[in-house]
Amino acid sequence: MLRLCLALVIHAMAVHTAIAQTGMTPVTPAVLKDLAPTGTLRAAINYGNGVLAQRGANDQDAQGVSAALARELAKRLGVPLRFVGFDAAGHVFDALAKKDEAKTWDIAFLAIEPVRAAEIAFTAPYVLIEGTYMVRKDSPLKEIGDVDRPGIRIAVGPKSAYDLYLTRTLKHAELVRAEVGGGEAMIKLFSRENLDVVAGVRQPLEDYASTDPNVRVMSGKFQEIRQAMGTPQGRDAGAAYMKAFVEEMKASGFVADALSRSGQKATVASAEK
Q1: Tens of pLDDT along the chain (273 residues)?
Q2: Which residue range is the domain that position 57 belongs to?
């Protein structure tokens, strides 16, 4: 352990010297220890949100804006990168408590939610996406405000950002959770159980609706989902570094370019005030 700590310190000093004249935030030994304590940056990738991440040949070939940010961060830290793949955001969060070495991560890409923020130090958002509803074409529910009423059942992915948000905010409607998160599990639940509504991220809901003439996606939104980078709480130096990193990536056009290259449309979040 002493040998590893010494190596991290020497490495951080070398990286700091190399970037001293570039204007980038310096990588201190404390930053390196927080973000790559094993000498490798372990980045959780949630394939359940196709706007942000897409599968490659394997986890190490992950694509999308999340993967691009992870690769750029590892480059700046001067350490190897290992992607840790997950099928749903809830599984990323649950991995913090399970202590499974194969699923342990140092950074993650998740929506900011209070229950998550108790365990994860988040940056400001880098991308904003909409949480909205899909219903059957002949549904009497026309607008977002029509949904929260007694007797309405809403299919959601368990522990997703929109599940957490609706759990906090709905007064009357009932949430029905799919057995798994990510992908189209909640859409299959909606069809199988004859539910009234599906909640989800706008882009994948619209993609599905384009293939099924019997459903429609509402034009409004019930939630602005703020996608951010995060690291486990207690890693203060690493968290501060990532906050500055995200602001630079937004301002430089890196985030917008990564979204474009992956064929995705989403709003780049504005600079943190």
Answers
A1: 445 444 444 444 544 444 433 457 899 999 999 999 999 999 999 999 999 999 998 889 999 999 999 999 999 999 999 999 999 999 999 999 988 889 999 999 999 999 999 999 999 999 999 999 999 999 999 999 999 999 999 999 999 999 999 999 999 999 999 988 776 889 999 999 999 999 999 999 999 999 999 999 999 999 999 999 999 999 999 999 999 999 999 999 999 999 999 999 999 999 987
A2: 2-127+227-268
E strand intervals along 68-122: 81-86, 108-111, 120-122
Q: In terms of DSSP bridges, do strands 197-201 and 81-86 run parallel, antiparallel, or are they unpaired?
A: unpaired
Q: Are residues 12 and 106 in the same domain?
A: yes
Task: State phi, psi for 126 to the nearest 5 degrees.
Answer: -105, -25
Residue 62 maps to which CATH number? 3.40.190.10
